[in-house]
Design brief:
The structure is a single chain. By secondary structure, this protein is mainly alpha-helical. The chain has one domain (2-135). 80% of the residues lie in helices and 0% in strands. The chain is elongated, with a radius of gyration of 18 Å.
Length: 138
């Protein structure tokens, strides 16, 4: 019984730091190793840890399966939408030059939106896969 309390309290203490690390990896991806895929897996790992400690139903109350299923195409839409916006601005698909006056600033914004789309899709996909595998025995 004491082990259960320690795990629950420890998990509640570490979850915000896992999310913070995921955001660090997400935003650091513009300048070094990291980005949307790695950050998405870390964020989904946070959901998985929560489900392991508190149960699948509790995790699905915090991050509902409907939200997870919306995240997958939403991230793809953000990714593809970034390319469509650059085409509407008169450039090639995913050519970020039109996003700002300065070349480097434009590319930073473009990569930020693309990586955000990847983050949303990957975290949604990993969470959906976990929900599907854990819930299949019911």
């Amino acid at each position: 019984m004491k082990l259960d309390v320690i795990l629950r309290v420890g998990t509640k203490l570490v979850l915000p730091f896992i999310l913070l690390f995921a955001f660090y990896v997400q935003f650091h991806g513009d300048y070094g190793p990291g980005g949307g895929f790695q950050a998405g897996v870390i964020a989904a790992g946070m959901v998985i840890l929560y489900a392991i400690i508190f149960g699948l139903k509790a995790a699905q109350r915090v991050i509902p399966q409907e939200l997870v299923q919306v995240m997958i195409p939403l991230g793809v839409l953000v990714y593809a939408g970034t390319g469509v916006v650059s085409m509407l601005l008169g450039y090639k698909f995913l050519e970020y030059t039109g996003f700002a006056q300065k070349f480097l600033t434009a590319h930073e914004w473009g990569i930020l939106f693309v990586e955000l789309g990847v983050f949303i899709t990957v975290s949604g996909t990993m969470s959906a896969m976990f929900y599907a595998f854990v819930g299949r025995g019911r």
